[in-house]
Design goal:
Layout lengths: L2 E5 L5 E2 L3 H6 L5 E2 L14 E7 L10 H6 L5 E5 L9 H4 L2 H7 L4 E5 L17 H17 L3 E5 L18 H14 L3 E2 L1 H12 L1 H5 L2 E5 L5 E8 L1 H18 L16 H10 L4 E7 L10 H6 L5 E5 L7 H6 L2 H6 L5 E5 L15 H18 L3 E5 L7 E2 L2 E2 L2 H17 L2 E3 L1 H10 L3 H4 L3 E2 L5 H5 L5 E5 L1 H15 L15 H5 L12
Helix pairs in contact: 5-6, 14-15
GO molecular function, one term: hydrolase activity, acting on ester bonds
Protein name: Lipolytic protein G-D-S-L family
Family: Belongs to the 'GDSL' lipolytic enzyme family.
C-alpha cells in the first residue's frame, strides 16, 4: 500500500466512525450512556447484541448484523471484547444492558468461557457457563425482554483435511441445551458458520479475517475475528436466522443482503494492500521536533506515507483559528489522529478552552469535519507530562481534558486512544529519574512549559518518540483493524512491553 499517512494527532476514542456509517445506511450504533435508553427516532423495535469480541462492530459480526435490518430497527451493540458469561456481569455490562430496555437480546458467549490450560480468570467451566446463561435468560424475561441464544461463531481452525475443527463444540451444545430446557429461540451459528467455511475453504475464509502478529512480529491471519467482509457475511447469517427463530421479526430483515458502506469498502481496500493516508494533528507533543509523531510514522510500513501536521503551542482553538486545520483537511486524508489539551489549558485568550464546554465542542467539530471529507477521525487524550509528585506522575489538570475527549468520542462513536493513561502507565513503572530519560533538550516550547527550569518533562527525545509512537500505533490497530498489516511488528517480548487499552479484538 503506498499509503500516505498524514498524522493529525488528536484526542482519541476507540469507537470508530459511527455517525458516518449510519448516514451511509449502516444502522449499527455502539453503547453511549447518554442515549442508550433512548430509542432511535422512527424505529419500532430495539435489538441489543450481548456477547464477546465476535459480536462487536470492529472485530465481529455486529455491524453486518445490524446493517441487515430495515430502518425500523434500532440495533445497539453491547458486546465487549474479552467478555465471558462471568465477566460480562462482573464488569457491570449486564446491568447496563438491561437498563437500555431493548425488546430483544441476541446473546452469544463461549469464546472466552472456554477453559484452556492457562485457566484465565474470565474462563468459566461448563456447568457454570450453563448456570450463567440460565440466569441471563431469567433476568431478561423478568425485565420483559425476549432473549435469543446464539451458539458461538466458530474459529477458523482448518485441519489437513481442509475442514474446520472447532474447539467450541461442548459450549455450543451447552447453549443448545439451555435453549431447549428454557424454551428460548436459538440461532445455530456454530454449525452454520462451520458449514459455510467448509464450503468456501481456508483461502476464502482468510479473506473474512483481520490480521494479527505472531511471536516473531510477522503479520498472520486472525482465526477468530472478522474484517468488514466477514462481518457482513456472518452478520447476514445471524440476521436471517433471527427472522426464522422469531417469526415476528422476519419482516424487519432486509430482503437482500446489505452491501458494504463506503467506509467498509475503503477498509477492505486497505487491509488488502491498497493505499491510505493518515494525518496527525495536534500540539508539540505530537509534532516532529518533540512529539511522538515521528515514532508513530517510523513503525508504519512503506505502504503508508505519514504526514505530521501538528504544530508547537497550538490548542484546539488556535490550530483552527490559524488555518492549520484547513491545511490538514486539504490533504484529503483517510485517517486523522487528533490530540490536543496541553495548550488548551493555557490562560491566554487565543488558546484557552474549557474542557467540558469549548474544548469538547472543538473536538466534536474536528470529528464532524473529518467525516465530511470521507475520513475516519481518531481522538487521543494528551500525552502525560513526566513530573512526579509523591513518587507518581501527576497529570490531574490534563485528565480533565482527557475525560472530555473520551466523552465526545463515545458520543460520536469514534476510536479513542487514552494516551494519557497509557503513557502514565509507562512512567509509573519507574522513578522520576527513569522518566527523565525521555526528556527533550532545547525544545523551543520548554521555557513556556517549565518556567525557569532547564528540565523539559513535556517534550520527547528520540527514545521517547519511539516508545510513545509505538504505543499509539499498536493501540490504533486494535480498533482500526484494517491498518494492522501496515504496522511493522516486533517479537513477542517487545510487544508485551507496550501497554494496551481495552479493544474489540480482546479475546483469544
Amino acid at each position: 500500500m503506498n499509503v500516505r499517512l498524514i498524522a493529525v494527532l488528536a484526542v482519541g476514542t476507540m469507537l470508530a466512525g459511527g455517525s458516518a456509517a449510519r448516514a451511509q445506511g449502516d444502522p449499527a450504533r455502539a453503547f453511549d450512556a447518554a442515549t442508550a435508553a433512548i430509542r432511535k427516532p422512527g424505529t419500532t423495535v430495539r435489538i441489543d447484541l450481548i456477547g464477546d469480541s465476535t459480536q462487536t462492530n470492529n472485530a465481529g459480526y455486529g455491524r453486518g448484523f445490524c446493517a441487515n435490518f430495515t430502518a425500523q430497527v434500532d440495533c445497539v451493540n453491547m458486546a465487549r471484547g474479552g467478555a465471558s458469561t462471568g465477566t460480562f456481569r462482573e464488569l457491570g455490562l449486564w446491568d447496563r444492558s438491561l437498563a437500555t430496555k431493548p425488546d430483544y437480546m441476541v446473546i452469544q458467549f463461549g469464546h472466552n468461557d472456554f477453559v484452556t490450560a492457562e485457566h484465565l480468570p474470565r474462563q468459566v467451566p461448563l456447568p457454570q457457563y450453563i448456570e450463567n446463561l440460565k440466569r441471563y435468560v431469567t433476568e431478561a424475561r423478568a425485565a420483559k425482554i425476549t432473549p435469543v441464544l446464539v451458539t458461538p461463531l466458530t474459529r477458523r481452525y482448518f485441519g489437513t483435511d481442509g475442514k474446520v475443527h472447532s474447539d467450541l463444540q461442548e459450549y455450543s451444545e451447552a447453549m443448545r441445551g439451555v435453549a431447549r430446557e428454557m424454551k428460548v429461540p436459538l440461532i445455530e451459528l456454530q454449525n452454520e458458520s462451520i458449514a459455510y467455511l467448509d464450503k468456501v475453504g481456508e483461502a476464502e475464509g482468510d479473506k473474512l479475517a483481520i490480521t494479527k502478529k505472531d511471536t516473531d512480529g510477522k503479520t498472520i491471519f486472525d482465526k477468530t475475528h472478522l474484517d468488514w467482509a466477514g462481518s457482513y457475511v456472518f452478520g447476514r447469517m445471524v440476521a436471517v436466522d433471527l427472522g426464522k427463530a422469531v417469526p415476528s421479526l422476519k419482516k424487519y430483515v432486509r430482503p437482500e443482503a446489505a452491501t458494504l458502506p463506503p467506509e467498509g469498502e475503503k477498509a477492505m481496500r486497505i487491509i488488502n494492500g491498497g493505499p491510505a493516508m493518515i494525518v496527525l494533528v495536534g500540539d508539540s507533543t505530537v509534532a516532529t521536533e518533540g512529539g511522538w509523531g515521528p515514532g508513530f510514522c517510523a513503525v508504519m510500513t512503506k505502504n503508508i506515507t505519514c504526514i505530521d501536521d501538528a504544530l508547537n503551542g497550538r490548542s484546539t482553538k488556535s490550530f483552527r483559528d490559524e488555518g492549520a486545520w484547513k491545511k490538514a483537511l486539504d490533504h484529503k486524508g483517510d485517517y486523522y489522529l487528533i490530540q490536543f489539551g496541553h495548550n488548551d489549558e493555557k490562560t491566554d485568550e487565543k488558546r484557552h478552552t474549557d474542557p467540558e464546554t469549548t474544548y469538547a465542542a472543538q473536538i466534536r467539530q474536528y470529528i464532524t469535519e473529518a467525516r465530511a471529507i470521507g475520513a475516519v477521525p481518531v481522538v487521543l487524550s494528551p500525552l502525560a507530562r513526566r513530573t512526579f509528585k509523591d513518587g507518581k506522575p501527576s497529570n490531574d489538570d490534563l485528565r480533565l481534558y482527557a475525560n472530555a475527549a473520551r466523552r465526545v468520542a463515545e458520543e460520536e462513536d469514534v476510536t479513542f486512544i487514552d494516551l494519557l493513561s497509557l503513557s502514565t502507565a509507562v512512567l509509573a513503572k519507574g522513578t522520576q529519574a527513569d522518566a527523565d530519560t525521555f526528556n527533550a533538550v532545547g525544545h523551543e516550547d520548554a521555557r513556556a512549559e517549565q518556567g525557569k527550569s532547564g528540565i523539559d518533562r513535556t517534550h520527547l527525545d528520540d527514545k521517547g518518540k519511539a516508545v510513545f509512537g509505538r504505543i499509539v500505533a499498536d493501540n490504533l490497530v486494535r480498533t482500526r483493524v484494517e491498518l494492522g498489516p501496515d504496522v511493522i511488528g516486533v517479537p513477542a517480548q517487545a510487544a508485551a512491553a507496550v501497554p494496551t487499552q481495552a479493544a474489540p479484538t480482546d479475546g483469544k
